[in-house]
Design brief:
alpha+beta; 5-stranded antiparallel β-sheet
Length: 209
């Protein structure tokens, strides 16, 4: 695991730890969420994930608060500042990761269109489709019709389940639209039946007109 991944994991843990603590105190919850929001707004000046990690490594809570224009004396001593700081960095990291993904999606669509490809892979996370977590989204370049595939762990059986659904995306950007599902979500426990269903979806939604 890279240093960046390790730091981002620590941020996520801080965020997870913060809110169960403060939800028992509505006043503390409001103070923490306001503080997280203010720090996140300040961090919007940081342009990418590597810079965000560097900022975290070279500053501390007091510095972040000062640079964000927050009166340090207004921060309640009951607030876990390490958790608040981690939660703010976690929130900003999600914003940056989302922006990176949108850029990568746009590049993939533009490249497929220039090459004359009928379909484009706009999302592919996971090393093996049979091993969760896994997710793949394939889209028709011309129509934006897409199939989303995923492999997850069932909370009931703790075994892998395989999911397929047909969705409508914006063919220019790959963004979700408000249209109804093109094919209802189906869940399988047998990977071969899942693959057969995926093949049918691909034929009906992604085949060239």
């Amino acid at each position: 695991m890279s240093e960046r991944d390790t730091v981002m994991r620590d941020w996520a843990k801080a965020e997870e730890a913060l809110y169960p603590i403060v939800t028992t105190r509505p006043d503390l919850y409001e103070a923490c969420t306001d503080l997280v929001r203010s720090l996140t707004d300040h961090l919007r000046n940081v342009p990418d994930l590597d810079a965000l990690v560097a900022t975290f490594r070279t500053t501390d809570f007091a510095t972040d608060v000062q640079q964000a224009g927050i009166d340090a004396s207004s921060v309640s001593p009951e607030i876990r500042t390490d958790l608040v700081r981690g939660a703010a960095y976690a929130m900003r990291s999600r914003e940056l990761a989302g922006a990176d993904e949108r850029v990568a999606t746009q590049v993939a669509i533009d490249r497929a269109r220039r090459a004359g490809d009928a379909t484009v892979m706009i999302w592919n996370k996971g090393e093996n489709e049979l091993h969760p977590p896994y997710r793949r989204v394939e889209m028709s370049v011309a129509t934006g019709k897409a199939i989303a595939l995923s492999t997850e762990i069932s909370p009931d059986t703790m075994r892998a389940v395989f999911i397929a659904v047909g969705i409508q995306l914006d063919p220019e950007t790959g963004d979700a639209t408000q249209d109804d599902l093109l094919a209802p979500e189906k869940t399988f426990t047998d990977p071969e039946k899942w693959r057969a269903a995926v093949a049918e979806l691909r034929s009906s939604l992604l085949a060239s007109d």
